[in-house]
Amino acid sequence: MNAQLDEKIINPLGLIELDHCWQLVLCDALENIADQLPTTIDPRLYALTSEVLKKVISHHNMLEEEALFPVIIKHLDAESNLRNAVAQLKIEHETDGEHALEIAHELDRIAAGGLMANPEMIGYMLRGFFESLRRHINWENQTILPLAHELLSQNDLNSISNWIIHHPETFRCSRLLKELGRHIGHRDCPYQVPYIPKSEHSGDLKDTPSNDNI
Ligand SMILES: [Fe+2]
Ligand SMILES: [Fe+2]
Question: Which CATH number do you get for residue 160?
Answer without folding.
Answer: 1.20.120.520
